[in-house]
Amino acid sequence: MSDSSPLPSFEAPYAPDDRMIATQLLATAGLGTEQEQRIDRAATRLIKAIRANDDPLGGVEDMLREFALSTREGLALMVLAEALLRVPDTHTADRFIEDRLGQGDFVHHETRSSAFLVNASAWALGVSARVIQPGETPQGTIGRLAKRLGLPAVRTATRQAMRLMGSHFVLGETIEAALERAHADRAHAPRYSFDMLGEGARTAEDATRYFNAYASAIAAIGRHAGHRPLPDRPGISVKLSALHPRYEAVSQARVMSELVPRLIDLARRAKAHDLNLTIDAEEADRLELSLDVIAAVLADGSLSGWDGFGLAIQGYQKRASTVIDYADSLAHSLNRRLMVRLVKGAYWDTEIKRAQERGLEDYPVFTRKAMSDLNYVACARQMLALRPRIFPQFATHNALTVATILELTGNSGGFEFQRLHGMGEALYAQLGRDHPELACRTYAPVGSHRDLLAYLVRRLLENGANSSFVALAADENIPAASLLRRPADIIGAPDRARHPNIPLPRDLYRPQRINSRGIEFGERAALRQLVSAVDGNPATTNRVAELDPQAAGRLVAAAQAGFNAWDRTPADSRAAMLEKAADLLEQRRAHFIALLQSEGGKTLDDALSELREAADFCRYYAAQGRKLFGDGEAMPGPTGESNVLRLRGRGVFIAISPWNFPLAIFVGQVTAALMAGNAVVAKPAEQTPLIAAEAVGLLHEAGVPASALHLAQGDGRIGAALAAHPAIAGVVFTGSTEVARSINRALAAKEGPIVPLLAETGGINAMIVDATALPEQVADDVVTSAFRSAGQRCSALRLLFVQDDVADRMIEIIAGAARELRIGDVRDVAVHVGPVIDAEAKQRLDAHIARMKREARVHFAGVAPAGNYVAPHIFELASAEQLTEEVFGPILHVMRYHADDIAAVLRSIERSGYGLTFGIHSRIDDTVEDAIDRLQVGNIYVNRSMIGAVVGVQPFGGHGLSGTGPKAGGPHYLARFATEQTVTINTAAAGGNAALLSGDEEESS
Of 724, 745, 908, 978, which is the most exposed, with the fewest CB atoms less than 10 Å away? Predict the structure, then answer.
């Protein structure tokens, strides 16, 4: 039952301007002189306590002091900690340990700390490093150590070092162990918020397992909670992304219908024990979704009268203040009290990268740490003013922040501090001695060491960074006074609110070009606006006239007539036209997205990405063209002579593009040829003629003369006729290997000049996953690489090799994640997999699926709706030879391999003859480097997905059966469309070298 009154909705700009926020924050940051002096005294006392800490066990601060992340040892230790404990087999573990210890000088590392944690870890790592020396091969090492007990000792010592580190971060491997260690049964037990460790759910089974873990933990905590009233009771922190396998903005309707009842169930259980249940913060793109969920749960009438529900708010987010106001408005509307945890934020690097990748106007987080600190204090002040409806919980290990909040409270109650288990112990021990009345809650992770890994690394990165207070406070070489500098003083003025070395996403590639403009689907207003605009561009029903093959001669002749004038057009003018075309593409974004959806079957995300790629091609080739096709390059030579090398167009280029990227590849081919000074006859795929017609019209509107760019609509016959025409100067082609071969034969057979063929074809693209890889990351990247765009990308993953020691778990999570994909009409933003291009393609894929069901082991067979849909499938092969050709659809083939046989895996990939894309998931650098060195593959992706090459960032193209090169979107591409001309002028021909004769003499000193 829910309250009937309408709840307020959350609305706030996703990424507002830093200067505007800084203006407001700086205006209210100042305190009185006496207040500032009290803050200085309190903070100095806390810093001294941190540095004087003589805890015999030691803590995270000791580890950070000993192994700073700015050192090779620190980085090696971080990677080792992240992955070692999840490696089940000894062979991979030994290679991994050798690889990591070889990257730091653990043998000669002299410990500076007396803490047991540090000394034990350093000793174990040093022993291991002495046994396995850097540069030794695993095979050689194993052979030499097999005669003695060194290798088991290495493995045991290193794992123990990792476990020892982990034990200081994790309160207990089970909730029962954690409760016992927390002394929860004592009358005056300290406050805890228990966090059940784990990554976000990728499968329905994951979500159910996490739900059961939360439910069991709530019951166990409740049994030990005693009888003290809230807020002086233990609590639990819940991660919403752990409770749903598709916790994303585009799946909002599904999340609300499936996750909200689960969370209400957990909240009711927490209410039954009068516990604190806090919703953990997620990434910025999930904020609005999280607040939707929180509002829906809070509105449930069964939770009225309970003051234990809470949420975490991130101070580094620019929307933090608005979220606080929203939480207060919810509490007011429902006549409730809320517990609100204010944290600095733990995903800063992820947020920066995502905003850059998506081409946003600005960042959702502050780019300067001082701005985050400034905002944190402002938010703290805001929360304190909202007591008692809001119960503030301040999570920080920063002595200055603690001292400032103490001053703002004015010795009043109604709030608490929070710290991470294993951190901030000395600081809060001193605070407790100085202010016994203050409450502090420990945020305590609970879970196995395997689940600890990602959490541990995030904490090390967050607190070990050079700008972190924890790292700075641990360094006694840094004067305590320098740590007391106020964030407002560091910022100084609104114009300094931004980090000087982090450009806005739009400016990422300046000065050469601007980044294409995108949107964040997690910003409801932006998504709604885009969807509305796309819906306002209904699919056109215009038919495009197809040409007969006989038209080829007329088109080539017309292009020839326009070539000379276009080639003589200054490069700067040609570049300006391409930049104008990019601007027009972005202005007509909704129109082209509608076309890509109706004609190309693209999901909204894929269509937007493709439009951005087309705009990037225009701007990148414009920037490259200005550099390559300007005044030419002066060459060195003797005095009295001028030598200039210049590029110029070849003549008429035929551009033959595919249906799977009917805008991006079409525009990329055409604009490259045009920028090089060629006239172009563009032959698009017969399945997507409207997109091509609109693109050509746009280029003409941008200034490209109709005489320089011609469109040849039709089937493969017109393409063949164009490619065979004796007067053409080159062909650029993307498509199948078979068609590329036929074009190559036609070019070789024709009379006249030998002309270039730039071909980008497909491949049986493979990925290798070893035992050091993180299963959740693998699942994300494999599902994206194999099934996004319905598998209709030439870069898509076709063959996955998984180390047999972890294959069962990896395949299970991949199949479970694939099961959660939604298949259907691409006009629905919640759809992940749209149709294949036509009935013929579906027929071929259905036939392959039928064959695989007979010959291979089926791990997943999705169910597709009626129409040209093919659901994702996963088949396990007995041999890689079962896959003889590229299967262009959402079908993943899997093979297991033994850790000793990775060389054989690489040989089998080589034998395919293809070389387009390759992926590898491993934390062992030697494994990665061996694969890179061995494979002649155009694009290799390490610990990420294999698709989505970005223009000018990941130039795209393959080798062998996968293409000729050079790479599209790369610095060598345009030159292949051009001829070279060297002009040598005897500048002394008129009677002497005036420049040489008139030169001044300068004596060297």
Answer: 745
201's tokens: 């759910």
Please tell me whether residue 963 adopts helix, strand or coil conformation.
strand
- What's the CA gap between 657 and 644, in Å, rounded? 35
CA dist 211 → 287, 538, 873 (Å)? 21, 43, 28
Q: Which of 781, 762, 785, 823 is nearest to 603 (CA)?
A: 823
The residues facing 802 across adjacent strands are 769, 896
Distance of CA 540 to the CA centre of its chain: 35
User: 1002: Cβ–Cβ under 8 A, 6 or more apart, which residues?
Assistant: none
Give pLDDT, residue 52: 86
Q: How far apart are CA 481 and CA 471, in angstroms?
A: 15
The active-site residue, picked from 379, 440, 618, 794, is 794
- Write down the pLDDT at residue 127: 39
DSSP string over 224-259: T--SPPTTSS-EEEE-GGGS-TT-SGGGHHHHHHHH
What is the DSSP code string of 893-919?
EEEEE-GGGHHHHHHHHHHT-EESEEE
Note if 440 is an active site residue: no
Give the torsion through C-alpha atoms of 64, 65, 70, 75, to 10 deg.
-40
Does the active-site annotation cover 760?
yes
| Spatial separation of the C-alpha atoms in residues 208 and 215, rounded to whole Å | 10
Task: State the virtual CA torsion across 918, 922, 923, 927 in degrees, nearest 10.
Answer: -70
* Burial (Cβ within 10 Å: 0-12, 13-18, ≥19) of residue 132: buried
DSSP of 698-754? HHHHTT--TTTEEE--SSHHHHHHHHH-TT--EEEEES-HHHHHHHHHHHHHSSSS-
Which two structure tokens, joined as six digits, stand for 319? Answer: 């929307």
Contact 90, 146 (CB under 8 A): no
Structure tokens at 341: 């945890």
Kindly report, residue by residue over 280-300, the tens digit of the pLDDT: 999 999 999 999 999 999 999
Give CA torsion, residues 519, 524, 526, 527, to 10 deg: 70
In residues, how long is the chain? 1005
Distance CA 738, CA 90 (A): 45
Half-sphere exposure (CA, 13 Å, Cβ side) for 963?
28
Return the pLDDT at 475. 76
When computed from its CA atoms, the radius of gyration of the chain, rounded to whole angstroms, is 32
| C-alpha to C-alpha distance for 332 and 329, rounded to whole angstroms | 5
**CB 813, CB 860: distance < 8 Å:** no
Going by C-alpha positions, the residue among 172, 250, 115, 382 that lies closest to residue 831 is 250
- Taking each continuous run of H as one helix and of E as one strand, the counts in the chain are 35, 25
Check 173, 283, 523, 760 and give the catalytic one: 760
- What tens digit of pLDDT does each residue of 618-659 get? 999 999 999 999 999 999 999 889 999 999 999 999 999 999
Cβ atoms of 605 and 614 closer than 8 Å: no
Task: Return d(Cα 334, Cα 295) in angstroms, integer.
Answer: 10
Residue 121's pLDDT is: 46
Supply the pLDDT for residue 541: 65
In the prediction, which pLDDT does 157 show?
Answer: 58
Question: Which residue is it, tokens 């390759």?
Answer: 918
Q: Which of 870, 873, 894, 872 is nearest to 883 (CA)?
A: 894
CB-CB contact of 89 with 771 (8 Å):
yes
In the chain, which stretches have pLDDT less than 50? 1-3, 56-57, 69, 106-109, 112, 114-150, 1004-1005
Beta strands in 367-428 (DSSP E): 390-395, 416-420
Q: Is 300 helix (H, G, I), strand (E, B) or coil?
A: strand
Instruction: Judge contact between 721 and 686, C-beta under 8 A.
Output: no
pLDDT of residue 63: 55
